[in-house]
Amino acid sequence: MANYDLIGNIAIVKFKRGVKMNEKKKYASHILNSHKSVKTVLEKTNKFSGRLRTQKTKYVAGYKTREAVYRENGCIFRLNVDSCYFSPRLAGERREIASKVKRNENVLVLFSGVAPFSIVIAKLSKAIKVTGVEISRECNKYARENVKLNKLWDKVEVVQGDVRKKLKLMKEKFDRIVMPRPNLKDSFLNVVFPRITRGGIIHYYGFYDSDKENELKNLIFEEAKKARRKIKILKIKRAGEIGVKKFRYRVDIRVVN
Q: Per CATH, is 85-255 categorized as 3.10.50.40?
């Protein structure tokens, strides 16, 4: 009848077309009975969209709230599921990135949302500092709260603002930059390359059809050439399927000079 995601105390269900409300409520009751931690069931009524990656949901059953408390990788997160983009399906991806971070690295996370990448990296790695940049004031409010909840105020900095503007103002350079960017045409690589150290790593996320992986590689090499940076692609990984034969790709890039 439906697929659903669990974000802590909230289940978000995507029902098939034509399902009547009484059937939705019956299915919601099944979810509530099957998952004791779930207290609210919402229906997903549209996809995440826009610059701020917000979505719309409709109440179906349980407590009337859109604020979730979610745990993963030994971390805790609070967020509004409508106004803040968050994917529990990226839990493994966040853990994998954290495992790559070396001792005393200075890490930058762009499009950082409620700070899941920033906090997991700070919690699981020996990074000396993790800075997250996010344009949404709502997400930044939750990000600051999450930093406090995880007692990482000495390692994680939360910056509110447009990635492009903030990076142009920054003088600091980073050993590793994580780019879990939204599905936009802008690659943002032209403002990222000046902020990475020699030998540093960029984790770039892009959305492409399975037969257009070469377009992704070509884009990265072209942007590196414009920035006069020499790079080496270490790995290309499918980090999630987002549609029929369409994937979120992660490209691990070493900036040689």
A: no
